[in-house]
Structure prediction request, 191 residues.
Amino acid sequence: MRQSTMQRTTKETDITLTLFLDGGEVNVSTGIGFFDHMLTALAFYAGIGLELSALGDLHVDGHHTVEDVGIVLGQAFREALGDRKGIRRFGMACVPMDEALCRTILDISNRPFLVFDALMPQPEIGGYDSCLTVEFMRAFAMNSGITLHQKCEYGDNAHHITEALYKSLGLALKEAIQVEGDTVTSTKGVL
Prediction:
């Protein structure tokens, strides 16, 4: 079973997370309603199980909570993948959300990198600062070892843009983590 359990406690956040790459229940509680909605959508479209509880210094703002969840989810993802034998490795998805169209292309390469091109027309989405989307994606990519490219082709609503980015990430991950063989998908023989 490809799974991982992580706990991370700092002066700013306390996060407990269990990840099941091959599916399961999704229960998310971060104290930020819109972020819970995005993480639930990400897990649903990736076909993964996710149990996540995060307590953060929300009296300051949501930044530490969102970034630290990205760190812990990335670390759990890396651990759950193990030696990465047999995975498809690459994934891509485009998601329309009303007037917005976003795409995600990724490589589970063990070479973390983020290219993020998505302007947010509104600064806040229901108590979630829209600038935190890139912070989550960066933390997740760097800690999971994924090369992650995301682009909003067009859109006028930060809610729609953000939701399309999280959903397309989920769909691309679902494709990339599929097990298709028993060898590492690399001419180098290792990821």
